[in-house]
Structure formats: structure tokens, C-alpha cells
Amino acid sequence: MSILTSENKRPTKRSAGRPLPELIFGDLWEFDPAPETADPKLKPRYDLFIGGRFVAPVSGKYFDSINPANETKLAEIAQANAADVDAAYAAAQKGFAVWSKLPGKERAKYIYRLARLLQDRAREFAVAETMDGGKPIKESRDFDVPMAAAHFFYHAGWADKLEYVAPGRKVAPLGVVGQVIPWNFPLLMMAWKLAPALAMGNTIVIKPAETTSVTALKFAEIVQDAGFPAGVVNIVTGFGDTGAAVLNHPAAVKVAFTGSTEVGKIIMRSLAGTDKKMTMELGGKAANIVFDDAPLDQAVEGIVNGIFFNQGHVCCAGSRLLVHEPVAAAVLAKLKTRIRTLRVGDPLDKNTDIGAINSREQLTRIEKLVASGVKEGADMFQPACKLPTKGYYFRPTVFSGVSMSHRIAREEIFGPVLSVLTFRTLDEAVEKANNTAYGLSAGVWTDKGSRILKMSTELKAGVVWANTYNKFDPTSPFGGYKESGFGREGGRQGLLDYCKLV
Ligand code: NAP
Ligand code: MG
User: Fold this and answer.
1) Rounded to an integer, what distance in angstroms lies between the CA atom of residue 303 and that of residue 269?
2) E strand or H helix that includes residue 254
3) CA atoms of 24 and 361, how far apart (whole Å)
4) Which of 132, 204, 250, 485 is the most buried (most CB within 10 A)?
5) Do 389 and 358 touch, CB atoms closer than 8 A?
6) How far apart are the CA of 424 and the centre of ligand 2, in A?
7) Which residues lie closer than 8 Å to 312 by C-beta, 6 or more apart?
8) Catalytic sites, residue numbers
């Protein structure tokens, strides 16, 4: 299909630094494959992890975890029922009696070991994460796994300094916490949940998402290798009903949920009136706002990272681009040129920018919302890249001419789809950015520090990035406003959600 000659097929030192004609960029490039080949060391079947051991489910049932890149079966995963969840809580209660009594500096050693052991097996975990969830290997290798380790390192550091979590007050662990996590950052979301809870002295029953349980169960091997007392970390796998059993269990003194706003609301309704503590990390529809004085090329990189990172399966994705009118045409043109260079395809290829959509279900949801954008009259742009014939893939998509009432401007698409809107004044930008049920994150691109400060005060979002996007650090609290949830993960604030003040 290539109309390129063998001479101009690959970038050479000669071409670096000078602009290339648009033809050479993107759509027509062909690259040799560069697959990551490390062995993910998967077992054919994973049981539940309860009381420090892998145990077959009482239910006797298993379901398949598949690789969304090629629709092949990766492993069988146990499907926990209510009796399995009961067993996990019984183990966690026993574990609490031991774990909560350990001095903080002893707990720190265990948590530190988790970080080190994860680092030792980083490559294997990155490959497993990519095969199970579809994200590009360069992201699981350079972001998910190192960030997960960083969360354990950071919280190991806190475990013997808990008197500084709430200065002037004493803190105590809560007991057994029930946690449920989504499929977009499976290992990392697990680290966000486990690390602060463990540092505080709580024990855990956690349920990963049904499409991405593999790295959680591989992590159970690390918990064993780190020599944790039995029952401190318990992992039960299954579908939504297993999640509901975990969060509604009478032995759970606190529940922490990351997932969709829709399911978050169901959980809040069912827990209303109980005395369980709750934190909710839910959906988002963030505004990424570019002013006319912004460094436009950097902004375009930030826009691309903001929406196409992890196929757009990111709760804080910059899915609404708000551009200042004077630069709107220029930004859109640069953006389209840049998008033509993105490589969509095999997630295990080290050069892939956009991997597979996590599941067929999610692909269908993205397709439906994109069709609604076309139907409602927005202008759609997609590069002409080839997609693999097997697996779940979606082209990076940009809608311009979007108005605030369009579904694609209001609903979380959770895919590689950007909606572009424009604004004339700062007040209009703030008004449009805040005109959403969500409030998880936002981005501001401008040369003026005063404008950054003004915007970050006005924007109703848990995180506001300035002249960057999607930057994370375990020291920095993350969480939402409005329907994006409540509670914080990371930093001192994240620890406060896992303790009681005595
Ligand atoms: P989801 O459908 O809400 O599922 C999240 C988790 O809840 C999964 O483990 C799911 O199990 C489980 N679940 C489903 N129904 C349940 C119920 N009735 N009771 C208890 N648990 C239940 O969300 P998702 O599609 O996996 O994840 C995408 C969503 O997560 C997006 O909206 C995204 O914005 C949000 N998210 C938010 C943050 C944040 O920090 N704010 C971070 C990441 C993702 P199954 O997998 O078996 O369905
Ligand atoms: Mg899978």
C-alpha cells in the first residue's frame, strides 16, 4: 500500500530537525515490528487469593480473561460468590489482629518489599498488563508499573511517620476495608488503593475489574514473596455482583471505589444509612484549555497526551479541548498533523502509541457516542491509519464544531475521542469548563502565571495542570468534585481517608 520509496521509509538523522512534507508523516508510514518479547509468566488459571494462599472458589466457577489486542484467551479467573467474599473478610479480620499491631517501621519493611519485588519483575508485569488490558507496552513499562512501585515506596516511607498525618492528633487504622477498582490502570489503581491502607495498618479485600484481573493475581505472588502475614491482602475476582458483595459486606468498615459515576451512585444508594466510611473516585469530562498566548506546539503535545494516553481510557482525560478563538484554526491544523503520526496497533509493539480498546463492550460504547457526534452535526476527523483485523481498535478521533449541548461534549466517552470547542474570554472558558456534572481535572495552557492562578482558582476540578497534562505523583492528592466523587488518593490527604483520629 505504500507509495513511499525505500529511501524515505524511516526517519534518518538527515531529516531530523527540518520539517517534513505532510505526505511523509503518519498515514503512509510503514514500520518494522518491534515487539516486546519478555515472558509475562501467566498461569493458565488463577484462583482467589485469600488468607495468604490461592484457593479455589466455593462457587466452582471461572471466567476467561482475554487479550483485547487479538481476542485470544489469556487465563481463567475465579468467579467469587458471596461465600468466597465472606471467607476473604474472615481472613482479613484475622489479618487485622496481626497487621494493625505491628509497629509502623515493621509495616514499612513489608510495603517497601512490595515496591522492590515489583521493580524486580517490572518487565514481566508490564507485558502481562499490556496483554490483559490492551495498553501500549511503552505505557505499562514506563508509567503503570513504575508508578505502582512509586506508590508503595512513598507509603512505606509514611508507615513509621503516621503521627504527622494529622498533626496534634493521634491516628489509628480503621479495620478491614473493601475496595473495587476499574480496568483502565489495573495494577496502578490497585497500588493506589493498597499502599495507603496498608501503611495505616488496615487489611484489605479488593476486587479488580473483570477484564483485567491478571496483574492483581500476579501481584498476589509478590505479596506472598514479601512474606506478608496471612489475610492482610485478599483478592477476590468476579463481576459486578462480586464487587457489590465486597462493598456491602458488614465487616467492611470503609469502602473505596474507583469506577464509573453510574456504579458509584448505585453503591452510595446501597450504603446510605450504614456507618461505613466511603471514598469514590468516579468519572470525568475534563476541559483542556488553550489560550492564545500558549506555546502552541507544546500545547498540541499536551492535548495529544491528554486524550490519547491509554486509548483515552483515563478518568482525568482532557476530553474537551477549549481553544481560544484567535488560535483555534492553528491549533486544530497542528493537531491533525500530529495525529496522523500516531501509530495505532499491536500494544506489545514498542512503537505503538494507541493500543487496543479494553473490551468489545467498551468499543461498542465508543462507537455509539462517536455516531451521536456525527448525527448531532459535529465535524469528525480521523487519520487514515490501518487497523489490525483482529482485536478491538479505534482510530484517534477529533470532533470540531462541537457545542456544549452535544452528547460528545457532555458524556464521558472513555476512548480516544476529543471534542473541540472554542471560547473568546477567560470567563467564557471558565463557564464552559465548569458546565459539566464532573469535576476531576483540567488543563490550562498559557504564558501568564497570573492567568494560571486565576484559572486554577475558578475551575471546579480536583486537579488543574498548568502547561502540562496527565502528570502524577504519589505525593500529590488526586480526586474529584461533584459527580467525579469524593475523597483523595495520594499524599497526606490520601492517608487521612484510611484512618480514624483518636
Ligand atoms: P465500572 O463499570 O463502574 O466498574 C468499576 C468496578 O466496579 C469494576 O471492578 C466492576 O466490576 C465493579 N462493579 C460493577 N458493578 C458493581 C456494583 N453494582 N457494585 C460494586 N462494584 C461493581 O467502571 P469501569 O468501566 O470499570 O471503569 C471506567 C470508569 O472508571 C470511568 O468512568 C472512569 O472515569 C472511572 N475511573 C475513575 C478514576 C478516578 O480516580 N476518579 C480512575 C480510573 C477510572 P466488573 O469489572 O466486573 O464490571
Ligand atoms: Mg483482559
Assistant:
1) 36
2) strand 254-258
3) 35
4) 132
5) no
6) 44
7) 319, 413, 414, 415, 416, 417
8) 281, 315
Q: What is the pLDDT of residues 323-377, one digit of tens each?
A: 999 999 999 999 999 999 999 999 999 999 999 999 999 999 999 999 999 999 9
Q: Where are the domains of the chain?
A: 1-30, 45-282+484-501, 287-466
C-alpha cell at position 494? 490520601
In whole angstroms, give the CA distance from residue 189 to residue 281. Answer: 10
Q: Considering the domain 287-466, what is its CATH architecture?
A: 3-Layer(aba) Sandwich (3.40)
Q: Quick one: pLDDT at residue 30?
A: 73
DSSP string, 305-352: HHHHGGGG--TT---EEEEEHHHHHHHHHHHHHHHTT--BS-TTBTT-
pTM metric for this prediction: 0.94
Radius of gyration of the chain (CA): 23
Please check the confidence at residue 401 and state whether its pLDDT lies above 50: yes
Which CATH code is given to the segment(s) 45-282+484-501? Answer: 3.40.605.10
Q: What are phi and psi of 365, to 5 degrees?
A: -65, -45
Asked whether residue 1 carries a pLDDT value surpassing 60, the answer given is: no
Residues with CB under 5 A from ligand 2 (ion): 65, 132, 211
Confidence grade of residue 27 (pLDDT, cut at 50, 70, 90):
low
Among 77, 144, 151, 184, residue to substitute to test ligand 1 (most atoms within 8 Å of Cβ): 184
Mean pLDDT of 253-263: 98
Exposed, middle or buried by CB within 10 Å (0-12, 13-18, 19+), for 60? exposed
pLDDT at 110: 98
Rounded distance, CA 72 to CA 81, Å? Answer: 26
Secondary structure of 367-436 in HEC code, one letter for each residue: HHHHHHHHHCCCEEECCCCCCCCCCCCCCCEEEECCCCCCHHHHCCCCCCEEEEEEECCHHHHHHHHHCC
Q: Is the CB of 477 under 6 A from ligand 1?
A: no
For 128-140, the pLDDT digits (tens) are: 999 999 999 999 9
Three-state DSSP at 233 gives strand
Can you give the pLDDT at residue 2?
36
For residue 46, which ligand has an atom nearest its CA? 2
Cβ neighbours around 470 below 10 Å, total: 21
- Tell me, using a 6 A CB cutoff, whether residue 133 lines ligand 1: no
**Residue in the structure block whose three cell numbers are 516486546:** 36
